[in-house]
Design brief:
Layout (H helix, E strand, L loop, with lengths): L1 E8 L5 H8 L7 E4 L12 H4 L17 E3 L6 E3 L22 H9 L7 H11 E3 L13 E3 L9 H12 L15 E4 L12 H5 L2 H4 L4 E4 L2 E9 L2 E9 L2 E12 L2 H11 L2 E2 L1 H6 L6 E2 L11 E8 L14 E7 L11 E6 L11 E8 L7 E3 L10 E3 L8 H16 L10 E4 L5 H5 L3 H15 L3 H11 L4 E5 L2 E2 L4 H6 L2 E2 L31 E3 L14 H18 L4
Parallel strand pairs: 1-2, 1-11, 2-8, 5-6, 11-24, 12-13
Antiparallel strand pairs: 3-4, 7-15, 9-10, 10-11, 14-17, 14-20, 14-23, 15-16, 16-17, 18-19, 20-21, 21-22
Helix pairs in contact: 1-15, 4-15
Length: 561
């Protein structure tokens, strides 16, 4: 039997941070358990360190077979969730956006005391090594590198996109993370000039891994949390086909907003009926476990570009710019929509021949749920996002898409692309990238097609994108219908809120403001699942903030400064 003072389940964006921070106290023995493979500092796979998000295309880094319902009662679709050291930070598109003040105001209203905007900004600044920011706004010891592609590297189309935004009355804000309100901005990305920033590379460095009080176990599946006398005392795990027991003074779940609630339910914490239905004796009844699931919805428009408009082929910049927008609809917060620009769609040579403009709803009201049908950790939970189930969401998603569509056909931009296509609702990079020799051959064919006359290119792409919807080009435009917009949306990987912070008398709350699970002792949840609502931003940066803040609270409770 293995022993630890603190057992951390999951080495993703939050878990890796916690392991590094809590093991700073040499008297605390920390054991970090991860279901996926390691990414040791001297052996980070090339597709993970790549500044183009090539790792998002590697199926070996994801939970196999995980599916989700996008809409209530709708069909199941594959849903990628990271199973790799660093979690989502190792496979995401590297956008490094903070949440906005309204996000934290809503958290505070839900009962998340000590998680207001001022606390969040203070914590963000402790770990953001933003290379474009002066030292008054960051710590010299900040581990997580962030930058923006300089405008000298922007393709001609990106420059025109900025001019179109200005013509729409939007201000330019160089550092959107230190600003609020509607604006056009260069996209902050989690990378240096040469490699991706992940929680694993930033926090689990070689020096940290040499600490004698830190142990890391990868390719280890946690089956259930163990309890004695109402307190968590460890977990059972399966490693190399053998079941083992781990004893710990405290257990912290950092398995993400899908797997953390599933683990709680399998361990006897959750809605009573669901726990009993899978043959588990309830340890604590918390009706909110697995409920309140949130995610962002988005769509992409692909643009074929003439050579003069493309990004330099030698550059691997992915996200270039974004636009924060307020819908202005009743009962909706400011900056609730996002429009964004992608500079290339493949790491292959033809990648800059296609750009993408996307639109997303970044302050949704719709909620879904995660449920469990078996005590077996090898059987995936059921995930239903409930996208557009709240009547306030569809009109705003349509409005965001219309804004993106209109930007493309302004005088500043429409002459700088050949054709625009509304993409089907699957991961956009999957549509443009296939693995192995087949992918290489398709890449060569794609380059020939994209350099061919526009009419030929359009005909081939219309067939390849199945059922890609041609929107128009410099010669004309076919306006999208509301139905086409809503049919093109897909969920992002920004899954939150299934173990929400809240007040104990709120039956839907799962943890308190110090991330402790209600109804049991010695158990916390620290990951995106505890966010009372999804932030109006890509979730990775805020998940790291949550872990940093939780580490502060845990250290304070232990009397460690």
């Amino acid at each position: 039997m293995l022993d630890a003072d603190v057992l951390i389940v999951g080495a993703g964006s939050a878990g890796a941070v916690l392991a590094a921070r809590l093991s700073e106290n040499p008297s605390t023995r920390v054991l970090l358990v991860e279901a996926g493979p390691d990414t040791a500092p001297d052996a980070v796979p090339a597709d993970i360190s790549d500044v183009f998000p090539s790792s998002s295309l590697n199926h070996a880094y994801f939970w196999p077979g995980l599916q989700a319902q996008r809409t209530p009662g709708g069909p199941l679709y594959p849903f990628p969730q990271a199973r790799i050291m660093g979690g989502g930070s190792s496979i995401m598109g590297m956008w490094a956006l903070r949440g906005v003040p309204n996000d934290f105001a809503s958290w505070r209203a839900a009962g998340a005391d000590g998680w207001d905007a001022a606390d969040a900004v203070r914590v963000y600044r402790t770990f953001e090594n933003d290379l474009d920011r002066d030292m008054s706004q960051r710590s010299s010891a900040a581990p997580y590198t962030i930058r923006r592609a300089p405008r000298s590297e922007w393709p001609l189309f990106a420059e025109a996109f900025q001019r179109a935004a200005i013509a729409e009355g939007l201000p330019i804000v160089e550092d959107i993370n230190e600003s609020t309100g509607d604006a056009f901005f260069p996209m902050p990305v989690a990378q240096s000039t040469t490699e991706r920033s992940s929680s694993a590379s930033a926090y689990l460095t070689a020096a940290v891994r040499r600490r004698p009080n830190l142990q890391i176990m990868t390719e280890t599946l946690v089956n259930a949390i163990r309890f004695e006398g109402g307190k968590a005392t460890g977990a059972t795990v399966t490693r190399a086909g053998e079941e083992q027991s781990i004893r710990a003074r405290e257990v912290i779940l950092s398995a993400g907003a899908i797997h953390s609630p599933a683990m709680l339910i399998r361990s006897g914490i959750g809605p009573e009926g669901q726990v009993r239905n899978i043959g588990v004796t309830p340890v604590a009844v918390r009706a909110g476990v697995g409920q309140r699931l949130q995610n962002h919805a988005y769509l992409n428009i692909a643009l074929t570009l003439p050579r003069s408009s493309r990004q330099n082929q030698a550059l691997r910049n992915f996200a270039l710019a974004g636009i924060r927008l307020s819908s202005g609809l009743a009962d909706c917060p400011p900056t609730d929509m996002l429009v964004f620009l992608i500079g290339r769609v493949s790491a292959r040579a033809w990648g800059p021949s296609v750009a993408m403009v996307g639109a997303g709803l970044y302050a949704p009201y719709s909620r879904g749920q995660v449920t469990v049908s078996s005590p077996d950790a090898g059987i995936h939970p059921h995930v239903s996002f409930g996208l557009m189930s709240d009547p306030r969401d569809a009109p705003r998603m349509i409005k965001a898409a219309r804004f993106a569509e209109n930007l493309l056909f302004r005088a500043e931009t429409y002459s700088l692309f050949h054709d625009a296509f509304l993409l089907p609702p699957v991961m956009a990079l999957d549509q443009f990238n296939k693995p192995g020799l087949r992918g290489a051959l398709l890449g060569q064919a794609a380059k020939m097609v994209l350099d061919a006359p526009s009419a030929m290119s359009r005909a081939v792409l219309n067939r390849m994108l199945r059922p890609g919807r041609w929107i128009g080009n410099r010669s004309g435009r076919l306006a999208l219908t509301d139905e086409e917009i809503l049919a093109a949306i897909a969920p992002m990987g920004h899954v939150t809120s299934t173990c929400s912070i809240g007040r104990e008398d709120d039956p839907m709350a799962v943890v308190d403001s110090a991330c402790r699970v209600y109804g049991v002792g010695s158990l916390r949840v620290v990951d995106a699942s505890i966010m009372p609502s999804v932030p109006s931003a890509n979730t990775n940066l805020t998940t790291i903030m949550v872990a940093e803040r939780a580490a502060e609270l845990i250290a304070a409770a232990a009397g460690v400064s």
